[in-house]
Write a structure and sequence with these properties.
The complex is a heterotrimer. Chain A has 15 helices and three strands. Chain A is mostly helical. Chain A has one domain: Up-down Bundle (Cytochrome C Oxidase, Chain A), CATH 1.20.210.10. Chains in contact: A-B, A-C, B-C. The complex binds copper (II) ion (CU). The site of copper (II) ion has 4 residues of chain A, from helix 8.
């Protein structure tokens, strides 16, 4: 192919490291995020290896604490939060809205460098001995007791937070100000709606974790009394501040995945989404109500029971917009002309796993039940069903769906189907036993456990092994496709949307001429809005 | 618009998305300002570019509100827990210096607003630079007073940490108060230092006659930032300096 | 966002001077009121004046008075979210004493 596109328009390392093209920056993110994903996976592997037997034989208790901390920090802050927004959102939002780039291209590049800088801090913390506080950095342990590299890791989180803020800011301004003529809000792809809602959470939540982490650093380094009860502080205040961000952060991970699923379900059921505006508004509802539930993390931490009741009730309410989405996707698939290509397999996986994750979340939102379940493997299983079963399934589904657009190459579909199957089986084998063992009372964050729990843990480790094969496989066929894959047409799936109308891979400025949109961008079938053409 | 790229093929449903060259309503403005040197390639016109920048700044300020908000929340919680200690500790701050700095900062907000106005109305570069430099001098004055206040606290070991000394009734609560005092005013001062840095660049640009009615967004968003810093101080001043006035202050 | 026009409202200088004077008066009143012990009412007066001053700065110095509806929404959302954070956190701290002998 000798047509000029964003990949061959400029060569050499500098043309990539200094690029302001949102598509190239998305690829920079893709590479660095993939690195952190496998790094976090390595820590997870060490955890599962240790838990294969009841005795603590592979790692010391201290090293085990460091493993689950580094696993959490890397996966949450350096993989899950940036994954879909920074890679797929960055690549697709300008194209989907008919713009040449994000509103602030230079800021976009800067945010990648900030992410890398935060990542370097975290790597330094990991290599120089690790952190053992848990990814939650709870005080006063993190400020007064822990003798690991808390400050370095906390600074890593602080720095990468700004990357997230700048991405959210860029998206909000872009979606408000850069839409092509005629592309009204209710013609936008649901992927864009989901990212708009995500950006709101990034903007409103991330600064709070930034200041919280800064206060932890101040207390630890300067011994100022802020959270440490010995110095007159209140550790529960830390938990309020921490979860004010960190509960909504779950929606930073899951909302973009929901956006991906909305696109995939329409494309592979060949139907317009059922209840467009319900899905669009439920994204906003999740973003907003999601800010009002953080107290469900501290039911047993000393929070007033009255506040607990309030947070419990709202936690139930926030399940409603998520359920609306699941019902609407199901209704979209119903009587659709379904093709089971690999992106759709991930979407099906998402639907089932996210539903299980969401429903078990309701168990934990009940204050009475939470006293039994708190800090057990039931919680671990629940949030992995959301974060891995939901967010990563969405990420992989999106990556498979848009890979031909991003690279201009087709990957091996049988290999992709195999990987999707392995991920689904491996995931369930890893985490379903954890619901059971957690319900039976196995606490999280210990490197030893009573022998009667071993059978569940062996299943879990076996599942994790299968899961890791499922995650490694795409590395091979994706990379293979870049060199050997057949060139992709502009629209290999027969999907709708502006991104499928530009060539694969798109030219640097996306559109030779700014498109003028006269109908919703996703018309799989004529609808009322189309009217008489 | 770049030549040489293939025209986006219209493989979609015909009539759904029409790709037309002329008649784009967004292009009307840009034809009125052909190739303004400050227009970035991905914007249609100067208006869109300016609106994007100011919206971006407002969104950024929302993140700043939440950033300082965490500190204000800590203040709220600890003050409800230690009401007397906070009054006692506050009484040891110099309300005169605080009030002086409040006046300085409000005055600097006025000069900043006039700086934006002078760029907006294409006044001479001398006028633009004058208001910017006045604002910077006022900002520097504020920081100078802050240095005096801080060094007084350091001299009396009223800085939280292992060497904290408090001869009042409530040493534990007072230490929390001063932890918050230093975090809040310290971060506020850091914002002012950053503001002064930005304003230096803006003043140089103004001197090079870069701002006029057509293009003054950088001055405008710097102004937004500076006013925000002023607003933070409007709350910090009474909450830190004045709550102990009637407590037997001096 | 309909019209992409550069023009912004140019406020008369006299308006800026008026706002400046109001801000200075507000500061003076805050300082004076702080000398009288009004109990909890001190906080009410202090914060009412501070909010009014902040509102003046936002509306006039920051031009929101003449801004788009979007600017209004964005500017307000920051303060609304702040109140959400304060309110829900206080729902914990202010109700802890309601159950005797359990939590504190
Ligand atoms: Cu939560």
């Amino acid at each position: 192919m000798d047509t000029l596109n964003y990949i061959n328009n400029g060569h050499g390392l500098a043309s990539w490291l200094l690029t302001k093209d949102h598509k190239r920056i998305a690829l920079l993110y893709l590479v660095s995020i993939t690195f952190f994903f496998f790094l976090g996976g390595l820590f997870a592997f060490m955890i599962r290896l240790e838990l294969l037997t009841p005795a603590g034989d592979v790692l010391t208790a201290e090293n085990y604490n460091k493993m689950f901390t580094m696993h959490g920090v890397v996966m949450v802050f350096f993989f899950l939060i940036p994954s879909i927004p920074a890679v797929l959102g960055n690549f697709l939002i300008p194209i989907m809205i008919g713009a040449k780039d994000l509103a602030f291209p230079r800021l976009n590049l800067i945010s990648w460098y900030i992410y890398v800088l935060g990542g370097i801090f975290t790597l330094v913390a990991a290599l120089s001995g690790g952190v053992d506080t848990g990814w939650t950095f709870y005080t006063p342990y993190s400020t007064a007791a822990a003798n690991s590299h808390v400050i370095t890791a906390a600074l890593g989180v602080f720095i990468t937070g700004f990357s997230s803020i700048l991405t959210g800011l860029n998206f909000i301004v872009t979606i408000h100000r850069m839409r092509a003529p005629g592309l009204t809000w209710f013609r936008l792809p649901l992927f864009v709606w989901a990212h708009y809602a995500t950006s709101l959470v990034m903007i409103l939540g991330t600064p709070v974790i930034a200041i919280t982490v800064l206060l932890v650093a101040a207390e630890r380094v300067l011994h100022m009394g802020i959270f440490d009860p010995a110095l007159g502080g209140d550790p529960v205040l830390f938990q309020h501040l921490f979860w004010f961000y960190s509960h909504p952060a779950v929606y930073i991970m899951i909302l973009p995945a929901m956006g991906v699923i909305s696109e995939i379900v329409q494309a592979f059921a060949r139907k317009n989404v059922f209840g467009y505006s319900f899905i669009a508004f439920s994204s906003l509802a999740i973003a907003i109500i999601g800010f009002l539930v953080w107290g469900h993390h501290i039911f047993v931490a000393g929070q007033s029971v009255y506040a607990g009741m309030l947070f419990s009730i709202i936690s139930y309410i926030v399940a409603v917009p998520s359920a609306i989405k699941v019902f609407n996707w199901t209704a979209t698939i119903y009587r659709g002309s379904i093709s089971l290509d690999s992106p759709m397999l991930y979407a099906f996986g998402f639907l089932g796993l996210f539903t299980i994750g969401g429903l078990t979340g309701l168990f934990l939102a009940a204050m009475g039940l939470d006293i039994h379940m708190h800090d057990t493997y039931f919680v671990v299983a629940h949030f992995h069903y959301i974060m891995v079963g939901g967010a990563i399934m969405g990420y992989l589904g999106g990556l498979h769906y848009w890979w031909p657009k991003i690279t201009g190459k087709l990957y091996s579909e049988p290999a992709a189907k195999l990987a999707a199957g392995l991920v689904f089986i491996g995931f369930n084998l890893t985490f379903f036993p954890q619901f059971l063992v957690g319900y039976l009372g196995m606490p999280r964050r210990y490197h030893m456990y009573p022998p009667e729990f071993q059978v569940f843990n062996v299943m879990s480790t076996l599942g994790a092994t299968i899961l890791s094969v499922g995650y490694l496989l795409p590395m091979f066929y994706f990379v293979h496709s870049i060199f050997r894959g057949k060139p992709s047409p502009a629209d290999p799936w027969g999907a709708k949307g502006l991104e499928w109308e530009v060539p694969s891979p798109p030219p640097t400025e996306n559109f030779a001429v700014t498109p003028i949109v006269t109908h919703g961008t996703h018309q799989y079938a004529p609808s009322k809005e189309v009217g008489v053409v | 618009m770049s030549d040489g790229y293939p025209q986006a093929p219209s493989v979609g449903l015909p009539g759904r998305v029409s790709i037309q060259a002329p008649g784009n309503p967004h292009d009307e403005q840009s034809s009125a300002h052909p190739h303004h040197p400050k227009l970035q390639h991905h914007f249609d016109d100067m208006g869109q570019q300016a609106e994007a920048s100011t919206l971006g700044m407002w969104v950024f300020l929302v993140t700043e509100i939440m950033f300082f908000g965490g500190l204000f929340l800590a203040y709220l919680v600890y003050r409800t827990q230690n009401p007397m200690a906070f009054q006692e500790a506050s009484a040891h701050l110099s309300w005169k210096l605080g009030a002086f700095n409040t006046a300085v900062l409000i005055f600097s907000s006025l000069t900043m607003a006039l700086a934006v106005r002078s760029a907006q109305t294409s006044e001479s570069r001398g006028t633009q630079v004058f208001w910017l430099v006045t604002t910077m001098i006022l900002g520097a004055t504020f920081l100078g007073v802050k240095v005096i206040e801080y060094s007084e606290k350091f001299a009396h070991n009223n800085v939280p940490g292992p060497n904290f000394v408090w001869d009042g009734q409530y040493p534990a609560g007072a230490e929390i108060f001063y932890s918050l005092y230093f975090c809040m005013t310290g971060l506020h001062a850091l914002h002012m230092v950053i503001g002064l840095g930005i304003m230096t660049v803006i003043a140089i640009m103004a001197w090079r006659r870069q701002f006029n009615t057509e293009y003054f967004t950088p001055v405008e968003i710097t102004g937004l930032y500076w006013h925000f810093v002023d607003i933070v101080w409007i709350f910090l001043f009474p909450l830190l300096y004045l709550i102990g006035r009637h407590y037997g202050g001096h | 966002m309909s019209g992409h026009h550069v023009s912004h409202h140019v406020a008369p200088k006299s308006l800026y001077y008026l706002i400046f004077a109001l801000l200075m008066i507000g500061t003076a009143v805050t300082v004076i009121v702080a000398y009288f012990d009004l109990g909890a009412f001190n906080n009410v007066v202090m914060l009412t004046i501070a909010c009014t001053k902040a509102l003046l700065v936002v509306l006039y110095f920051m031009h929101v008075r003449w801004g788009t509806r979007l600017t209004w929404v964005v500017a307000a959302s920051g303060f609304v979210w702040l109140l959400i954070m304060f309110g829900f956190t206080l729902s914990d701290y202010l109700t802890r004493g309601w159950v005797g002998g359990t939590l504190r």
